Amino acid sequence: MAKSRNIVGSTTYQNIKRDIIFGKLAPASKLKLEALRERYSASMSTLRETLNRLASEGFVDAEEQRGFFVSAVSSEDLVEIANLRVLLECHALLLSIKNGDADWEGNLVAAHHKLHIMEKKMLNGELTAAEDWKRYDWEFHKALIAACGSQNLLSLHSVLFDKYLRYQMLVLTHRGEKAVHEHSELLDAALRRDETRATDILRLHIERGLNHSAAVFQSAGAESTQPV
Question: Which class in CATH covers the domain with range 2-70?
């Protein structure tokens, strides 16, 4: 019975978190327990546990006497998340290049291959592939740092990447050939074990992505709390 409750709780957590990241639950919107119970087929106790867990990760705000709300978005928060991502991911990439073995290289090549297929679809204007594109983008970046040797670092990066991904999905745009080229350069530098080149490319890749997303976000209203 306990195992069954854990499975239901994990599924509910994943579903609500995914809907927040992909904008199906809008920023700053109130999370009404009864509506969530019907939408996710979960008990009230499971929902409260899930929302408190998401609050601890920064995806939900728990306000005393007012209930739960999807965390709001802002330009300042986007910049902070991107800067933290640079710190964590570049450090993790450096460690991963030092520690990575043949299995790491093979997984990295496979992750880039899947991402490149989706990038070509995006370049051809297939915007319906956007969600898969971002999923493979995440898998590639995760593969880059998979050999860092620190589960704590990987866990922190995972939460941070999800927060960054949330902004990207709110201002869903694609930087085109430049981003595709940066991913290919990242793969090449990592496989050549060129630590300096790889971390420089990664830092530039994140900063360019931030500038692109921030510009679109601001043009739609920097303090907007609705998907744009």
Answer: mainly alpha
Residues 84/207, Cβ–Cβ less than 8 Å: no
Q: How far is CA 32 from CA 9, 12, 51, 52, 226, in A?
A: 17, 15, 11, 14, 18
Cα gap 87→164, rounded to integer Å:
14
> 173-217: per-residue pLDDT in tens?
667 889 999 999 999 999 999 999 999 999 999 999 888 888 877
Instruction: Return the residue matching tokens 């990987």.
Output: 154
The pTM assigned to this predicted structure is: 0.84
Q: Where are the domains of the chain?
A: 2-70, 75-219
CATH of domain 75-219: 1.20.120.530
Which pairs with CB-CB distance under 8 Å and at least 24 residues apart come from 30-39?
30/67, 30/68, 30/69, 31/60, 31/67, 31/68, 31/69, 31/70, 32/67, 33/67, 33/68
